[in-house]
């Protein structure tokens, strides 16, 4: 039943996202970076609280992102901590950190990328997990309205689990193919819809795959302040765990 609800919610939100994207094709926006701004910092704090006669539940999501963009190369770092309880029982204590760089290729619209990540997740039963790898990306669409980007590459992953996986292991290592679809839709930089979606199957075991999806809708209140709503979905099939989080809060952002 829970799985059916997740699928229904994901389908509904995907439809809404597509509808908004189609509406936005006629709008004009400005770029995030320009000739005089090379650095970026973003702090987002969101959460959701539910209180009933039987008890209360809540989740808190804090993230810090930084970026550097110079001519043919860019570097990004992202750190996220999600903490939550349901009726006084711990449901989330999840931390992730990722660093990546992009280098413009010799061919138009192509670029090379490298990635390193570390994460630990109570909800997904991961004590710790490391990923590192590289690949190539392509800018499918780059306009003042909509940016769509795809990338693919190979990752090496090593992990330690709090429960035994489908193969009876608590420690494992594998190589994965990592495919990403990323988009950014902006209405005059006042309303921004961003999505970052990963499909990461193992190259050695078909039942071992990772799905990660993050979609954020931001409404700008001030030049440096936005109201944000985020939908985050993670599935780690090797341990049979998944989570779905919907949060609301504030984003503090600055380009300089």
Structure description:
The structure is a single chain. The protein has 256 residues and is mainly beta. It has one domain (2-255): monomeric porin ompg (Porin). The chain has one helix at 2-23; strands at 39-52, 55-70, 73-86, 89-104, 110-121, 126-142, 146-161, 171-187, 191-201, 209-222, 225-236, 241-255. Strands 1-2-3-4-5-6-7-8-9-10-11-12 form a 12-stranded antiparallel β-barrel. A hairpin with a 5-residue loop joins strand 4 and strand 5 (110-121). Residues 1-31 have low confidence and may be disordered.
Sequence-ordered SSE layout with sheet pairings:
Layout: H1 2-23, E1 39-52, E2 55-70, E3 73-86, E4 89-104, E5 110-121, E6 126-142, E7 146-161, E8 171-187, E9 191-201, E10 209-222, E11 225-236, E12 241-255
Antiparallel strand pairs: 1-2, 1-12, 2-3, 3-4, 4-5, 5-6, 6-7, 7-8, 8-9, 9-10, 10-11, 11-12
């Amino acid at each position: 039943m829970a799985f059916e609800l997740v699928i229904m919610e994901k389908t509904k939100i995907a439809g809404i996202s597509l509808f908004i994207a189609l509406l936005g094709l006629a709008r004009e926006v400005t770029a995030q970076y320009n000739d005089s701004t090379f650095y970026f910092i973003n702090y987002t704090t969101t959460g959701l609280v539910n209180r009933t006669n039987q008890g209360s539940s809540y989740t808190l999501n804090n993230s810090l992102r930084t970026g550097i963009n110079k001519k043919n190369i860019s570097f990004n770092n992202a750190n996220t901590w999600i903490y939550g309880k349901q009726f006084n029982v711990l449901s989330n204590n999840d931390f992730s950190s990722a660093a990546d760089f992009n280098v413009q290729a010799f061919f138009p619209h192509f670029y090379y990328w490298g990635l390193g990540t570390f994460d630990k997740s109570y909800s997904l039963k991961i004590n710790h997990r490391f990923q590192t790898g590289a690949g190539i990306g392509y800018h499918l669409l780059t306009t003042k309205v909509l940016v769509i980007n795809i990338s693919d590459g190979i990752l090496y992953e090593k992990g330690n689990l709090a429960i035994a996986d489908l193969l009876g292991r608590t420690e494992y290592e594998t190589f994965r193919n990592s495919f990403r679809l990323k988009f950014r839709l902006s209405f005059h930089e006042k309303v921004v819809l961003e999505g970052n979606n990963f499909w990461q199957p193992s190259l050695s075991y078909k039942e071992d795959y990772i799905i990660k999806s993050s979609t954020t809708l931001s409404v700008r209140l001030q030049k440096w302040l936005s109201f944000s709503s985020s939908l985050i979905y993670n599935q780690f099939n090797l341990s049979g765990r998944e989570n779905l989080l919907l949060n609301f809060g504030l984003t503090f952002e600055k380009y300089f």
